[in-house]
Write a structure and sequence with these properties.
The protein is of the alpha+beta class. The protein contains 5 helices and 11 strands; from the N terminus they run ββββββββααβααββα. β10 and β11 form a beta hairpin. 19% of the residues are buried.
């Protein structure tokens, strides 16, 4: 019903979580997890009406077999496959670099999947859930998402500044190829942009 592809490797299947009488929890392990960047999870057959497949990922534990499960998203009959970028948590890097073990917090998915079958392997867990339950699950903010948002914000802010400033540019009489922008123009843009951020911190997301 569900398949897994790790970039550059053969397709893998999922197995039922031991002891799951409902047959709604599945897990697949990944070797050499440090070398992966993306995974693809897909449905090989339709799901029952009103049901989706929640996708969770677990890195090998850093000094603890109680690994943390991160919710990546979900599959539905309308969206039967998805590509997920895998970003290694910083706390694992710190633990490996210092030789110190860091206790991983247990997310709710630890109840569904338990610890991964082998603490030295990464794992992908899939849970069949009502679509209404999956819609209420929040994707955790990652460093990659935050970095992308910051880059987008800076880009739009600079575009706004350049477009505004250039509309008030004045040619240098001594050299027509040179232009300058009055200081009051820069100050005016700054005050206006600041007020807009204070009124609506996300206004820039809808600006062109």
């Amino acid at each position: 019903m569900i398949g897994l592809i790790v970039s550059g490797r053969p397709a893998q299947s999922f197995e039922s979580v031991p002891g799951d009488a409902t047959q709604t929890r599945f897990i697949s392990t990944i070797t050499d997890a440090d070398s992966i960047n993306h995974i693809v999870v897909f449905l090989s057959q339709p799901l029952p009406e009103g049901v989706g497949a929640g996708v969770h990922f677990s890195w090998p534990g850093a000094g603890s077999a109680a690994q943390e499960w991160t919710y990546l998203g979900c599959l539905t009959n309308a969206k039967p496959s998805a590509i997920y970028k895998i970003v290694k948590p910083k706390r694992l890097d710190l633990a490996e670099g210092s030789g110190d073990s860091i206790q991983q917090p247990q997310s709710p998915a630890i109840v569904m999947f338990g610890g991964a079958p082998n603490p030295h392997l990464a794992a992908v867990g899939v849970s069949l859930e009502p679509l209404t339950a999956l819609e209420s699950m929040q994707l955790p903010p990652t460093d990659a998402v935050q970095k992308t948002n910051l880059q987008e914000f800076c880009g739009k802010m600079l575009d706004s500044f350049v477009n505004y400033a250039m509309s008030f540019a004045v040619a240098n009489p001594a050299n027509p190829n040179d232009v300058y922008v009055p200081m009051k123009t820069i100050t005016g843009w700054f005050e206006k942009y600041k007020r807009r951020l204070e009124t609506d911190p996300n206004f820039w997301k809808s600006s062109s």
